[in-house]
Design goal:
The chain is mainly beta and about 1450 residues long. The protein contains eleven helices and 98 strands.
Length: about 1450
């Protein structure tokens, strides 16, 4: 409807627009018409009279009225002959225009041809809105007048629906008889209005009263309503009334109808009965079928059968308007004269309609009954009565007694309530002697049906029996309890035979009866028990002839043991200190029982043994004893035994004493409970008490400990629980236990151990040379003794000049005769083995003259003309030195003019820096300046030069930090920057090519990772620096590195600092292509991989053998020092992520000189390494001559591991946590020597005093650890250090030996004492052995420092080094990368037999000359690691290997195990 209204509004708007347009057009046409007429008149006047007249325009086909169905197409024809004017159509006077396409009427169009004068108007999909008067108009033109023709378009629409209001089509209308009914038929939305025709059945129905109404429902649509009023009767039941719409738009073949069917409710017709006629006779047993029917009625009649007023059947069936109820039964006597009634009714019945019949059934008596006595004595007169069952007609009775018919017997007949009649006859008979019975017979006869029934009655003649006799037992005979005794009773004669009955003490018992012709017996079986003793058994015999039973009896004698023993205690509640009587009562026994008391199998003497008569003729016995009750007697068991000696049977009963006493604590192992702070603790106490319901209460200092587990400290019965101990929890805890008898109290002392914490230390101690110094360290911890606080200083002999004292938690270190060499940090280490050790450094300052730093970058400065120049001067000294600046031996006017200023700052406790600022530098200001550092002990003078800004100097050195299969990480030491900010550029090339590639370094960084390199390729690297004024020269191409092999697919390489790993080049040509084809080939990939791996292993083995041979012939070439460590990705040794440190050449020269390319052919294929880099700045170096303090991890690596808080210095197997033991049992973890990583995967950072994330180390399950793990001593010097050659080395600490097997292991640390013979620091000393592969040892991974000032001479290292024997278990090829290595190991086994010890040094020896710096062992390869046998050492800046004879040491190592030896400076740069 909304859509139609919208369309109508649009049409109305369009009509208005058309009307306005038509008015304008008509006005315009009016003026044009006048102008045309005027022109025409002029032409006529000019041309004169015409010779003849032209043909006028006219309609050739005139439009005619048209009727069209809604939705169809309407074609209004209009054809004009001699058309001259314009032609258009109008609709209800509204002009549609002259165009073939009519605007606003998309369904309207004009079809035709102007030349032929055809202007047909087509209307498609006609609707009611198109119903209008149309006109075809031809306008005037050229003496042609306008013509018009009208036609009406009628659009017809069939009805939208037809319905009988209130009922659906073909529905059933239920109505009562003679009830008014109105049917209203509605035919909706037709045009024109539809007509309605009614049908009754198939015949048109034209009632007299019919109301038809036509209404316009919508625009031009009409709804017709016809009402029909009916008063239906029974004839209208099932009648259909149909309403049909008649309309010209409807097809006669498909009429529009609505039909309903009437269901008229009316009462049924009267019922009638078939199957039995009145007066008909039935016999009993005959099948009778009574049918009740009723016709008519809506709904059909309900039929119910009644018999004598009682409903018997109500199941009926209907067919149409016929109801039927059939009752089928078998005629019985009770059906005689029975009235069967059928009732019919429905909802329209006011009262049921009835029909009934009365049946007549003939039947004979079913039986006769004879009544009278069954027993009689001789001569008795016996009355007898015979009665028949109901009979129709009545039956007759006849008697026979003793075989003779009785005549003249009287009888009477009465009506039976069950139907028919019953007959009764009475007679008497006399009992004759010498007969055992008298028989009487009664006959019942129905004469009409000739049926006879008989009943017999027998009368027994009675005689008494003989007295009974008992056999089977003689009086006085003893029967043991539990035995079986049979008794037999026999009685003879009598009619009937006697009835025998057994009695036990007047109680009837069952027996087994056996009867013969003239006698009867009854037998009983007695299972003798206590109740049979002195029991009387009696047998009685009786029949109908005896008035008093005949009997005989016997008495039994039974021996029996006591059945129960009862123990009673007096008093019932026992408490310590009272006397109790324990009494035993035995049950009855025959003969009397003997009582006895027992405890733990030992008899106890009883008192007051008494006896008295008991049940069943026995004797009851009693025995008691007395005892003094104590607490310990609770639970003791006493047993009473009662024995019948005649039967050799006894019974026992035991009693457990229940002694009530107050709780008593079970003594705990110790009155002190010890726990560690932060951990849990449970104090468990147990008590003994009776009753056992004990209430515990824990208190501390009078405060009650809560019982619920939500608190940190809670009590649970006798258990005191600390979920997390705190040191304040220490104290005395009291536990009280109480029950109904009293309470007890026990005190437990809780000691909380907590790790040591250094509370305070003495500040920097300053003393004069030669004075004694005292350093203090106050420690808090529990336990805390003098042994828990140690003083140490690496490289310092603490036994010569120092002593310690301890008092009140404070340890004092006394240094005698302090001198300059004593300056430095002394470390206070507190460790009570409860938590992690703690330490603090205390600086001892012995006053000394200033010492100015001579680093090249500190003795040069540069500035541009007119700028501010800054000249640094850094010095160490105590007390604080004063700085004086001079130029040309004259003091500068510092801070007195604008020209010169000085800035001073304190770098640390000993180091100070003075910076001379020269403002507006002029050419005369360039040159040398003297810096004088002076204090009370002396002065030091150094020259600092101010130069004009220039290009930078080349970097001092270039080192290789890390190598993977496609990346190399390099680092360089900057040179003088020329006074301006310097940048750096690295160039590199393959060793066999001349073309360089360049890459700029990152800002403010002296390290760079170069990626995209080829694998298995040797590269040469160099670096230069540049600033705004120019660039330096490149360093010689001496830094070199060879990229590794591609990692296997299952173990991606770790490319530190580089991009993603690339595999563009494989060791064997074409392998990548084969793998790609194999992946695409599906199943073939497995076989292809096996083939490729075999080829790779074979060729790599050949290369190794070749390089080993070349290495033997080239001892002067450099060695690549490599390191294996677990992969950072999969925590196992993948064999593919290896970091290497490049070596420097044997000789160094400036760029431009001819330098040979040193290509290491002896380098083995190595895997990539997980490289640990420190990020924390090291502390200042206080040692003299710039040496590093040995073993201080802060100065070695910035992060190191500490043992787990529960690890102690003792045996690792004993003090190891459960987690450690579990890991070791699985063969995947071995605690490293202290400092070692805690099992929770964190490491301890010395600088920040906290644990940081630490990647866990896992090891292959197949590793075989053949020796005990090293002790977990924290930073303890290692007394004996030995290196196992032949592919590995093992550090030994505190005298224990640890052999690490497998391709990986825990990195060990130790101290080498007494190492002599060190080569020059600028020479790479390289020796090569036959077996093994290189092993890089970086100082970043747990290095060990060796101070030259503490190196001692050892006679075991003068040319040949003894070695220690190491086990060499077979390694998996996936790690070794060399299947043929076993052959090399067999050769090495022979050398190992002769090598017992590689290094052996004592802790105390002859000091080497001071000022030589320090030596640092960076790593030692694990024994038989299969990963090389190289040794890497690092030195401080002033270390001179020649002074200590390291050449002989390296030579000894080389000769002993073929270990290449290299050195690094204090900054970790390879020298």
């Amino acid at each position: 409807m909304a859509l139609q209204q919208q369309q109508q509004q649009q049409q109305q708007q369009h009509i208005k627009w058309q009307q306005h347009a038509t008015k304008r057009r008509r006005c315009r046409q009016h003026w044009i018409k006048h102008l045309q007429l005027l022109g025409l008149a002029v032409i006529i006047l000019a041309s004169g009279p015409a010779p003849g007249h032209a043909q006028q325009q006219k309609f050739r086909t005139t439009p005619h009225d048209l009727q069209v169905l809604e939705g169809a197409e309407a074609m209004m024809r209009c054809e004009v002959a001699n058309v001259a004017g314009a032609v258009q159509w109008t609709k209800d006077g509204f002009a549609l225009g002259f165009s073939a396409v009519i605007p606003g009427y998309p369904r309207y169009s004009v079809l035709g041809d102007r030349k032929q004068g055809i202007y047909n108007l087509r209307i498609s999909n006609a609707s009611i809105n198109d119903d209008a008067d149309y006109q075809c108009q031809v306008g005037p033109a050229r003496l042609n007048s306008a013509i018009r023709a009208n036609a009406k378009l009628t659009v017809i629409s069939p009805p939208a629906s037809i319905e009988i209001k209130g009922y659906s089509h073909n529905s059933k209308v239920e109505v009562r008889e003679n009830q008014d009914l109105q049917l209203k038929c509605i035919v909706a939305n037709a045009k024109p209005a539809a007509q309605i025709v009614w049908y009754r059945g198939n015949v048109e129905y034209k009632p007299e009263k019919r109301e038809d109404v036509v209404e316009e429902s919508t625009a031009k649509r009409f709804t017709t309503t016809s009402s029909l009023k009916l008063k239906p009767g029974p004839d209208d039941d099932y009648t259909e009334y149909t309403c049909q719409a008649k309309h010209k738009a409807l097809s006669p073949d498909m009429p529009m109808r609505a039909t309903v069917q009437l269901s008229v409710l009316y009462p049924p017709g009267p019922p009638y009965i078939e199957g039995y006629s009145p007066g008909e006779t039935l016999r009993r047993g005959q099948t009778v079928e009574l049918m009740c029917r009723s016709r008519g009625g809506n709904p059909p009649a309900q039929l119910i059968w009644y018999k004598n007023g009682s409903q018997i059947r109500m199941a009926y069936r209907t067919a149409g308007r016929l109801s039927e109820n059939i009752y089928t039964f078998t005629a019985e006597a009770g059906d005689n004269k029975a009235r069967f009634r059928c009732e019919a009714s429905n909802v329209m019945s006011q009262n049921p309609l009835k029909a009934e019949v009365e049946l007549s059934v003939l039947f004979a008596p079913t039986h006769v009954t004879v009544m009278g006595p069954t027993e009689a004595r001789v001569g008795d007169i016996v009355p007898l009565t015979c009665t028949t069952a109901p009979s129709n007609p009545p039956a007759e009775i006849k008697w026979m007694v003793g075989g003779r018919q009785v005549r003249n017997a009287t009888s009477k007949t009465i009506v039976s309530p069950e139907g028919g009649w019953t007959t009764t006859s009475n007679i008497t008979a006399t009992v004759e002697p010498n007969k055992r019975s008298l028989v009487a017979i009664c006959h019942g006869l129905n004469m009409q049906l000739t049926e006879n029934v008989v009943s017999t009655h027998t009368i027994n003649v009675l005689y008494p029996p003989a007295p009974p006799l008992i056999s089977g037992y003689m009086e006085g005979q003893i029967i043991p309890a539990g035995s079986v005794q049979k008794l037999l009773c026999v009685s003879s004669g009598g009619n009937p035979l006697a009835t025998l009955t057994w009695y036990k003490n007047d109680k009837r018992i069952n027996s087994v009866i056996r009867a013969a012709d003239k006698s009867v017996s009854a037998e009983i079986t007695v299972l003798a028990n206590v109740s049979d003793n002195q029991a009387q058994y009696r047998c009685e015999a009786s029949n109908s002839a005896t008035e008093i039973p005949l009997f005989q009896s016997t008495t039994l004698s039974v021996h029996f043991a006591p059945e129960t023993v009862k123990i009673r205690i007096e008093p019932e509640e026992l408490r310590p200190g009272m006397e109790a009587a324990i009494i035993c009562d035995s049950s009855s026994s025959n003969p009397p029982a003997k009582l006895s008391w027992w405890k733990d199998g030992i008899p106890i003497e009883g008192i007051n043994n008494t006896s008295k008569p008991g049940l069943w003729g026995g004797t009851v016995s009693t025995l008691e004893f007395r005892v003094n009750i104590t607490q310990e007697m609770n639970g003791q068991v006493y047993t009473c035994q009662s024995a019948n000696e005649a039967l050799q049977r006894s019974v026992h009963e035991a009693v457990s004493l229940d002694v009530l006493y107050r709780p008593k604590f079970v003594p705990p192992p110790s009155s002190t409970a010890v726990g560690a702070e932060g951990e849990s603790l449970q104090v468990l106490l147990q008590t003994r008490a009776n009753p056992t319901a004990v209430v515990y209460k824990w208190t501390k200092d009078g405060a009650t400990i809560p019982q619920d587990g939500e608190h940190r400290i809670f009590a649970d019965g006798g258990s005191l629980n600390f979920t997390r101990l705190h040191r304040d929890d220490a104290g005395i805890y009291s536990c009280s236990a109480s029950n109904s008898q009293g309470k007890a109290t026990l005190n437990i002392t809780v000691l909380v151990e907590y790790g040591t914490t250094i509370k305070s230390v003495s500040e920097n101690i300053v003393v004069n040379p030669g004075e004694d110094a005292m350093l203090s360290c106050t420690v808090e911890g529990k336990p805390l003794t003098e042994e828990h606080v140690k003083w140490e200083r690496v490289g310092y002999d603490m036994t010569v000049k120092t002593s310690t004292t301890f008092a009140n938690g404070t340890s004092y270190l006394h240094i005698k005769n302090a001198q300059r060499e004593d300056v430095g940090n002394f470390r206070c280490v507190a460790d009570n083995r409860v938590a992690n050790p703690t330490n603090r450094d205390i600086l001892l300052i012995v006053k000394f003259a200033p010492e100015i730093a001579k680093a090249p970058t500190l003795l040069r400065a540069a500035s541009g003309t007119g700028e501010r120049g800054r000249l640094p001067c850094r010095a160490q000294g105590s007390p604080k030195p004063n700085f004086i600046w001079r130029q040309e031996k004259k003091d500068l006017p510092i801070n007195r003019t604008y020209k010169y200023e000085v800035e001073e700052r304190k770098i640390d406790s000993l180091t100070y820096e003075s910076t001379l600022i020269v403002d507006k530098v002029a050419p005369a200001d360039y040159g040398a300046y003297e810096c004088v550092a002076r204090n009370d002990l002396g002065e030091s003078i150094e020259t600092v030069r101010l130069e004009i800004t220039s290009q930078p100097d080349p970097p001092l050195s270039l080192n290789i930090l890390n190598v993977t299969h496609d990346t190399v990480t390099v680092a360089w030491t900057p040179g003088f920057d020329g006074g301006l900010k310097a940048s750096y550029r690295v160039r590199y090339r393959m060793a066999d090519r001349e073309q360089y590639k360049y890459i700029d370094g990152l800002p403010n960084s002296h390290k760079l990772t170069i990626g995209g390199l080829r694998m298995n390729t040797l590269y040469l690297f160099s670096v230069m620096s540049w600033n705004e004024l120019g660039q330096s020269s490149y360093l010689p191409d001496l830094a070199r590195a060879e990229t590794k092999e591609a990692p296997p697919p299952s173990h991606p390489a770790s490319s530190l600092g580089g991009g993603p790993p690339t595999t563009s080049q494989t060791p064997l040509g074409g392998t990548s292509g084969m793998l790609l084809v194999g992946v695409g080939a599906g199943v073939v990939v497995v076989l292809l991989n096996v083939f490729v791996i075999g080829c790779c292993l074979h060729k790599r083995n050949e290369k190794r053998l070749k390089r080993v041979a070349e290495t033997t012939n080239q001892p002067a070439k450099t060695a690549t020092i490599e390191m294996y460590a677990p992969s950072s990705y999969n925590d196992t040794v993948t064999g593919e992520t290896l970091s290497s440190v490049s070596e420097k050449s044997e000789s160094y020269s400036n760029e431009g000189s001819s330098q040979p390319e040193y290509i290491d052919e002896a380098r083995k294929k190595a895997a990539s390494t997980y490289l640990v880099e420190g990020s924390d700045m090291p502390p200042p170096r206080y040692q003299k001559d710039g040496t590093l303090p040995v073993i201080y991890p802060n100065n070695i690596v910035n992060a190191c591991t500490l043992p787990h808080p529960r690890h102690n210095n003792g045996s690792a197997a004993i003090h190891m946590t459960r987690d450690d033991q579990m890991l070791i049992s699985k063969g995947v973890y071995i605690p490293s020597p202290s400092p070692a990583p805690p099992p929770d995967g964190s490491y301890y950072n010395m600088n920040s005093d906290r644990y940081l994330s630490y990647p866990p180390m896992e090891y292959p399950a197949a590793m075989d650890f053949t020796a005990q793990p090293m002790p977990l001593a924290h930073l303890q010097p290692i007394a004996v250090t030995s290196l196992a050659t032949n592919g590995g080395a093992t550090l030994i600490g505190n005298g224990s030996v640890a052999a690490v097997a497998g391709g990986s292991g825990t990195l060990r640390r130790g101290i080498l004492r007494g190492v002599v013979g060190v080569p020059q620091p600028d020479v790479t000393h390289h020796t090569s052995g036959v077996g093994g592969s290189p092993l890089q040892m970086l100082h970043d991974l747990h290095p060990v420092n060796l101070s030259a000032s503490t190196l001692t001479t050892s006679t075991t290292l003068n040319g040949s080094l003894p070695t220690t024997t190491a086990t060499l278990p077979r390694q998996p090829h996936g790690i070794l990368k060399d299947p043929n290595r076993n052959k090399q190991q067999q050769q090495q086994q022979q050398q190992i037999q002769q090598q017992q010890q590689l290094l052996n040094a004592s802790l105390v020896g002859v000091p080497v000359s001071a000022g030589m710096g320090s030596l640092q062992i960076l790593n030692l390869p694990p024994a038989n690691g299969g990963l090389g046998n190289n040794l890497l050492m690092t030195t401080s800046g002033a270390f001179d290997p020649t002074a200590v004879g390291m050449s002989s040491f390296a030579g000894g190592i080389s000769q002993a195990g073929g270990i290449p030896v290299a050195y690094t400076d204090a900054d970790g740069h390879l020298v």
